[in-house]
Amino acid sequence: MTELTFDAPTVIRTKRDGGRLSDAAIDWVIAAYTDGRVAAEQMSALLMAIFLRGMDRREVARWTAAMLASGPRLDFTDLGLRTVDKHSTGGVGDKITLPLVAVVTACGAAVPQASGRGLGHTGGTLDKLESIAGFSASLTNQRVREQLRDIGAAIFAAGELAPADAKLYALRDVTGTVESLPLIASSIMSKKLAEGADALVLDVKVGSGAFMNSEAESRDLAHTMVEIGTAHGVPTRALLTDMDSPLGRTVGNSLEVQEALDVLGGGGPPDVVELTVRLATEMLELAGIDDADPAQTLRDGTAMDRFRRLIAAQGGDLAKTLPIGGCSETVTASRSGTMGTIDAMAVGLTAWRLGAGRSRPGARVQHGAGVRIHRRPGEPVAAGEVLFTLYTETPERIGPALAELDGAFTVGDAPPRPKPLIIDRITR
Ligand code: URA
């Protein structure tokens, strides 16, 4: 397909005016954007049109297939491993990938995990891991294969897999076009199908910190992705999980790595442990492994051992102190009572304002920026005690970050109504 058949302004206008994009138009625009024939400002306009007008299921499926076709698709079948992966739709304090990969490999499956960077108010696995001195996520395909064979896991920048997603992801992050069902579904599924795992578990977030506003939209996202995975021959299931409050007690790159290490050491916040074990159970079931106990690998140190080997294989040095922002500020309780809900979106934006995320493509993130949550929902609070600590390298960021956190939590007389962390399981 060439510019004689298609041109970007026409494709943009079609979607802007609420039309549907033909298969051929989708194939053309994705290929042309990937190799530079469609400019970033044109793709930005198209992304905004998709954000505002949406796409039907067939358009999403084709958009995903075109992104998948923009690069190679890895294949590990010759290694004789049981490969399985998970991906989250994006949350606040969501460090689950770190302990999860280690737990699942300790239980006998292999995890080829193509990861992304922070997106909007949510953190990204690669930004978190890069706060470990020396860690590199730029792995050749050959290196990924070797690690899968030797350690059972590799966590790598999707890079040349689904290169269309690498470009679109960075563009969406800075053009206000992240929170779109078709764009999220295609972004996730194109890289996950390209990475070559035999099966896939999706953690679809629901609540204030999720990209989708309502549970109904999150369900729709889950069904769309499960359908795409299944259509491509990859058994796929999804858990709908709560993201009204941040996961765990930390939000921000190095803070989250430390919390993941706490979980791997047999401790850590109960919600992070619960979600890790539940997702591991789903992944192991899909991998056909029914004689393993994921929780036990956290207690007996075998998951920690895997994590250490994985980080070392990718150049990381866990003996070096994790960075923490040199400038800090606390938020204290104005009264005694019980911590109510903590708005995940506001805390995510607070961390982003502190420097944990980006506002320009390719900008450097501050690995030591973020928020420590001292009192979780339902925990008792004494007047004057510290509820949150904010960290950054840039003192001027503290004011805007505090403004973001203002009104994001309540301290009341009664605990908030308990909510389940796992809301539903979607298998088709
Ligand atoms: N994770 C992704 O990889 N892409 C999105 O769009 C959202 C979460």
Keyphrases for this structure?
single chain, alpha/beta, Transferase, Pyrimidine Nucleoside Phosphorylase, Chain A, domain 3, Pyrimidine Nucleoside Phosphorylase, Chain A, domain 2, Aldehyde Oxidoreductase, domain 3, 3 domains, 4-stranded mixed β-sheet, 4-stranded antiparallel β-sheet, binds uracil
Give a quick rundown of the structure.
By secondary structure, the chain is of the alpha/beta class. The chain has helices spanning 8-16, 23-34, 40-53, 57-68, 97-106, 125-129, 141-150, 163-173, 181-194, 215-231, 253-264, 270-286, 294-299, 302-313, 344-356, 398-405; strands at 84-88, 111-115, 153-157, 199-206, 236-242, 250-251, 327-332, 337-342, 370-373, 380-381, 386-392, 409-412, 422-426.
